[in-house]
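User: Okay, second chain of the day. Same drill as before: sequence in, structure tokens out.
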Amino acid sequence: MDLKESIWVEKYRPSKFSEIKGQEKIVERVEALVKLRNIPHLLFTGPPGVGKSTLALVVAKELFGEFWQQNFLEMNASDDRGIDTVRGIIKDFARVKPIGDFPFKIIFLDESDNLTKDAQQALRRTMETFSQTTRFIFGANYSSKIIDPLLSRCTVFRFKPLEEKDIKEIVNNIAKKEGLKVSEDAIKALFKISDGDCRKLENLLQSCSAIDKSINEDLVYSLVSAARPKEIRDVMELALSGDFLKARDRLLDTMLKYGLSGLDTIKQMQKEIWGLNIPEDKKVYLVDKCGEIEFRIVEGSDEFVQIESFLANLILVNKK
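Assistant: Same drill. Structure tokens below.
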């Protein structure tokens, strides 16, 4: 699912440390640093939609108060990723002293794992030269794409996807403010589809609310390119029983019904493997096959041929 970012993402963005969900230990440690008014360079790393950018903004608001916009520079390295950005915009902002009685300013580089290697190398000297007036906060999905010299200069905080209880709390809070009725089944569906990504959750919830103020599981699944987990599991169990043709036909119907691509389908199948009534070693084998088939699809192989190949593996694995 890839909905455009909705107005709810900004509307319900937390503005205080206490409002950030799912990252309690990280928030507690960062808040302690802010209270000391002496934070080091920080690296927030983890999957999308889990609070990295939000925490960086809250740090600036809590530290600088009404002057936060003058002392905080936010840049997305997906757009400005070259060495000229480091030498120009970032350096110009870093060399100016903070406005007000503050020890330093903050530069937040979101998606910093998209910075070129040259740009990251140029940042090393900038961080050293302006360490008295500027602190950097890096946001990244993959810390492995950040060069070691930058990693060694930062305190690293690793974010995790939101748990179901956090998603439920966020949904109930929005539902109360927006006058929505969200069923328990719908919340479970929202959690499964969002995979702990709060941004995706809020986008989907807003789309559902535009259609009906009473949100149920059927409405949620009708708005995303995802089949119900039970439908995918039924197809896999048919294949395990040895009925390849029936499993193939039902899978094709499901893919056409929901507009699923081969990549969407294999990802959903991978999630359902662990619920199948087969030995653990066979589950591990099937997960390995999912990874192989996903790679083939990404590289350009025919999607349906690859999905049929996986159904054939389901039949063969049950005969071994």
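The longest strand covers residues 134-140.

User: Thanks, on to the next one.
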